[in-house]
Design goal:
It is a single chain. The chain is built from 17 helices and no strands. It has a single domain, classed as Up-down Bundle (Growth Hormone, Chain: A). 62% of the residues are buried. Helix content is 79%, strand content 0%.
């Protein structure tokens, strides 16, 4: 029977992966704070800014399977360190931008490509290799929870610096935080020295055959398609919630507080769903998350927002935020093995990022055309309910029991 003592040899790798993920996720999730002052200062529209965020998410999604395949051949350390350097470069380009091109190259392409090497798929694959199957789901939940702490730190710091010294100074603060990703990625890269545990339907296959095996699995296909809604809902909020609160006449700091609240409660949610994923049907849990998120979104956007209500909304959404990641990553590792986990998780993540593209750019386009976010949130709620119901219905009785053995 595995115990927490089994984690001690893995702690340096797990801490490195957690810090890297925390900063990578937290900084990008907080970029929406700079949208109102940035667009006014350099003369671009809301949809222009959200186009850059949409490009970021699309680049991240399309490059994630490639990065996952390269990790098997080149090693995790080179990719994660290079991705961290690219993240810093992206923030520098954004902080010095004077037009749409700089915003797209910095916040869009550079950070998007960086996330393929430093985001959740890579961090989850690194963490899963160093723990036993019995502890895997809980550990993935812990690493996912760490991905929230970055927003808890970055959002208030960025907003405070932007309010007192301007949005460019706020981004310089983000650059300083991003530099910490470099040593974290280096330490997490120690996983390259470890052998790949045996077991899994795709461990002994090459990349092409492993991908074909996954795409023939109907559960994998349904899970991947439902992942679209996850990306659409979350990126719509991180990109547009500060702007929505600004329209409603709220204090600009409330947007930062809401993003920080999301980050804080995401820690609890990730830990809970990581624990639950080791005991219950992962796909049923995923469907429940999509349905609950959609109902909470409908409640908030059909009511007149107040500071207390906004923070309560952020807390509930935070609890439901990144709990998806350990469930998806854990199911992929349980079903197909660890060798190609980053690549196959990346294939599912393409759908997530297509949804992120729609959530960011579609939300901005609807706002520019209609002058409000009403149509955008209604579409998000409708698709979320549909995806959740289909996921729950399809998952019933089709997922294998989680592993209980202590050996990896």
């Amino acid at each position: 029977m595995a115990t927490l003592k089994d984690l001690r040899p893995a702690l340096p790798i797990l801490i490195g992966a957690s810090v890297m993920l925390s900063l990578a996720m937290g900084l990008r999730q907080s970029l929406g704070l700079f949208m109102p002052p940035l667009t006014k200062d350099i003369g671009i529209t809301v949809s222009d800014f959200t186009l850059a965020i949409a490009v970021q998410n699309l680049a991240w999604g399309l490059l994630q399977p490639v990065a996952g395949a390269w990790a098997v051949r080149l090693g995790y350390r080179p990719l994660m360190v290079a991705g961290s350097l690219l993240y810093v470069l992206g923030l520098v380009l954004l902080a010095t931008a004077h037009g749409l091109l700089g915003v797209v190259l910095g916040a869009g392409l550079s950070i998007g490509a960086s996330m393929a090497c430093t985001g959740s798929a890579m961090a989850m694959a690194v963490a899963a290799r160093r723990v036993s199957p019995a502890l895997r789901s809980s550990v993935l939940g812990i690493v996912s929870a760490a991905g929230s702490l970055g927003a808890l730190l970055a959002a208030p710091i960025g907003q405070a610096l932007a309010q007192s010294h301007g949005w460019r100074f706020g981004l310089y603060g983000f650059i300083a935080l991003a530099l910490l990703m470099l040593p974290a990625a280096w330490v997490a890269g120690r996983v390259d020295a470890l052998p790949v545990p045996a077991g899994g339907a795709a461990n002994q296959l090459n990349a092409r055959d492993a991908l074909a095996t996954a795409l023939r699995n109907p559960v994998f296909v349904v899970m991947s398609l439902a992942y679209f809604v996850c990306g659409m809902q979350l990126v719509f909020l991180t990109t547009h919630l500060p702007s929505y609160l600004d329209i409603c006449g709220m204090d600009p700091m409330l947007g930062a507080q809401a993003l920080g609240m999301i980050g804080g409660f995401n820690v609890l949610g990730s830990l809970f769903f990581g624990w639950a994923g080791g005991r219950y049907n992962k796909l049923m849990l995923l469907g429940g998350i999509y349905i609950a998120r959609s109902l909470v979104l409908a409640w908030y956007f059909t009511s007149l927002p107040t500071p207390a209500m906004t923070l309560a909304f952020a807390a509930v959404m935070g609890f439901l935020w990144l709990g998806v990641a350990p469930l998806v990553s854990g199911w992929v590792a349980d079903t197909f093995g660890l060798r190609w986990q980053a690549m196959l998780g990346g294939v599912a993540f393409v759908s997530h990022q297509l949804g992120s593209f729609v959530g960011a750019f579609g939300g901005g386009l609807i706002f520019d055309r209609l002058g409000s976010y009403n149509m955008a949130w209604k579409v998000g709620v409708a698709l979320g309910l549909a995806a959740g119901i289909v996921q729950v219905a399809f998952a019933h009785g089709r997922v294998p029991k989680p592993p209980r053995a202590a050996s990896a």
